[in-house]
Amino acid sequence: MDLAWLEHSQYFAALAVGFFGGVHCLGMCGGLISALSFTQQAKMPKVKTHRLPILLAYNLGRVTSYALAGALAGALGASFLSLTGLQTAQHILAFFAALFMLALGLYLAGIWQDVAQLERFGSGFWRKLEPLSRRFIPIRTPWQAFPFGMIWGWLPCGLVYTILIWSLSAGSAWQGLLLMLAFGIGTLPNLLLIGVAANRLTQFSRQPAVRLGAGLMVCAFGLMMLWRLTLNF
């Protein structure tokens, strides 16, 4: 059973899922990043401000946390693979990842909302972690924004958790890291643009046609994963 297709296509797929799933990111983080964009003007109205370095540092911190989480998931999956038959176990993990990808697509499309239940698993951890981020508020420099973004990278999110489940089947800590890194990079265009055109993008993202299109695109990746897995059995 040849799994080479996973190694060559999974990173591009994760990148695309991050981009098209950015509709969900707009709802989760849009208000926060908009606040980051204008916090300096509110706190220091007489000082010339530069919003882009703040936004870049925040998102770099967020993506760094995604990559670390992917490495942990990949290492966990690799440990599981080492205890059983490599190819069979990797196919099983990839199969469940594909199912979660389909569920995520339906969630983004507004068709099936139960994926949001995944966010409950991290709610307890987040309640303990979130207060640490308040130490960096108000954010006036990129050096404050980066650790703030790292903390908020652990915000419970069904979209992130689904890609983490996918990372379990990556095969190693390094591959899991790259998978989540690709996903995080894919989310950047949407979240960086929020700081520039928050209101317009938020209104755009709430349109049913946009949500449906993004969800169906993610579903297509899930179906592709299932189809290619069946070819290798």
What level of helicity do the residues show?
over 70%
Enumerate the spans where pLDDT stays under 50 for 5 or more consecutive residues. Answer: 40-49
Count of discrete domains = 1
Beta-strand percentage?
under 5%
- Individual helix count: 9
Strand count:
0
The average pLDDT value, as a whole number, equals: 78
User: What is the overall shape?
Assistant: globular
N-to-C CA distance = 7 Å
CA radius of gyration: 18 Å
Task: Please describe the biggest sheet, giving its number of strands, its sense, and whether it closes into a barrel.
Answer: none
Structural class: mainly alpha
What is the chain-wise order of helices and strands? HHHHHHHHH
List the main descriptive attributes of the protein structure presented here:
233 residues; mainly alpha; globular; 9 helices
